Task: structure prediction
Amino acid sequence: MELTLREEEIFKEIDRTRIPGHVAMIMDGNGRWARERGLPRSAGHRQGVETVREVVRFSNHLGIKVLTLFAFSTENWRRPPQEIDFLMSLPEQYLQSELPELVRKNVRVKLMGDPERLPAKVKRAIAKGLDATAGNSGMILNFALNYGARMEIVRAVQAVLEDLQKGKIRPAISEKSFAAYLYTAGLPDPDLLIRTGGEFRISNFLLWQLAYSELWFTPVYWPDFGRVHLLQAIRDFQQRERRFGRIYPEQR
Ligand code: V07
Result:
C-alpha cells in the first residue's frame, strides 16, 4: 500500500508489533461536513461511506483484528424519515461494492444491534454479507446498527433471567459470564475508541466494553477522516500505553 509522505512520517513512529487489537469508532460530523459545503445531509453520509471504505481497507492493512463502527444508533430513528431512508440504503450500497473485496481479503462481517426494526432490504443485504464472510478468519468488521448500549445491557439481563428460569444457569453472575450475553460475546474489549466530529461523549456506545479503553477525540469530521488520522490515533494510543501504570515515565 502506497503511503503519502505525511502518512509515512507518522507510520515510522508506530510500533507495528503493538497495533491495537480492537478499534471502535463513532463516525460523527457528516451533517456538519455537508452543511459547511451547502450540501444536503445525504451528501455527507455518502462521503461518509467513502471514508468507511478507506478506513476498513487501511485497518486491515495495519493488522487491526477487530474494527467496530457505530453506523446507526437506537436514537437515530428520531431523524427525519427522508434521512432515515437514505441511511438505510447505505448498508446495501456499501456491501454491493465492497463484499467481493472483503471476501477476498478474509474479512468477516458481523452485526451488533437489534435487527428487528431494520427494513427488510437492509436485513437481506446484511444477511448476505454475514453469510458470504462467515468462514473468514481475518479482521472482524463489526457494524453497530440500531445499536444502543443500555438496550444491549438490558437485553443481556433479560436473557440471563430467561436462562435462570429455564434452569440453564445457577443464580450467580460474574463479569465474564455476563459479558457472554452481550453482542460482543467472544470479542476482546476495544483497546481504542476514536470519535470524530468534535464532541466529547460516548453517546450510548459500548458502555460495558469501553471500561478500560483509551479514548481518542478529533474535531475532524468523519468524511474528512483519513489514514493520517488513524495513524495519529494509533501513535497516541501507543504513547499513552507506554506510560500506563508507570510513576516516572522518563525512567526507562
Ligand atoms: C452509514 C456512513 C458512515 C458515517 C455514519 C453514518 C452514515 C456503512 C454502513 C454499513 C452498515 C452495515 C453493513 C455495511 C455497511 C452504514 C449506515 C450508515 C446506516 F453491513 N456506512 N454506513 N450504515 N453511514
